[in-house]
Amino acid sequence: MDFEQLRYQVAAFAQDRDWDQFHSVRNLILALVGEVGELAEIVQWTSDDKIDELLKSGGRERLAQELADVLIYLVRVADKSQVDLAKAVSDKLAENDAKYPKDKARGNAKKYTELRDEAP
Ligand SMILES: [Mg+2]
């Protein structure tokens, strides 16, 4: 499924229920934040070394559901605000590629501002 198919399906879901009237950009962003909170809740209070265990014991299904909720709202926000999400992602990846040159960024987590002055 590509972004356009997803955008269409999410819009149709809302239209079929006459929910477009509730889907202001502001409301959708707030709903998106709520879903990100539900995503975070899955791992909240769980240490990194317990994540695999959590995923094996039902956590993966919960994670899949919340990731889907996040993506659905993300796609809907982009649609309602007339942002071409596929283009935005592509543009952002190109921007990040320039900010984080492979030869300087490989194997470290430094912010791009710290990489500028480093020798390759
Ligand atoms: Mg949810």
Write a short abstract of this structure.
The chain is mainly alpha-helical and 120 residues long. The protein has 6 helices and no strands. It is 72% helix and 0% strand.
The CATH superfamily name of the largest domain is: MazG-like
Q: What structural category do the secondary elements indicate?
A: mainly alpha
CATH level-two architecture of the largest domain: Orthogonal Bundle
Give the SSE order as H and E letters.
HHHHHH
What's the domain count?
A: 2
- Tell me how many strands there are: 0
The residue-averaged pLDDT reads 94
Beta-strand proportion: under 5%
How would you describe this protein?
The chain is mostly helical and 120 residues long. The protein has two domains: 3-83, Helix Hairpins (Orthogonal Bundle), CATH 1.10.287; 84-120, no CATH class. 72% of the residues lie in helices and 0% in strands. It has six helices and no strands. It has helices at residues 3-16, 25-43, 51-80, 85-99, 102-105, 112-115. α1 packs across α3 and α2 runs antiparallel to α3 (51-80). The longest helix is centred in the middle third of the chain and has 30 residues, at 51-80. The protein is flat. It starts with a helix and ends in a 5-residue tail after the last helix. The model has no long low-confidence stretch (mean pLDDT 94). It binds magnesium ion. Residues 35, 38, 66, 69 line the site of magnesium ion (MG). Magnesium ion is lined by residues 35, 38, 66, 69.
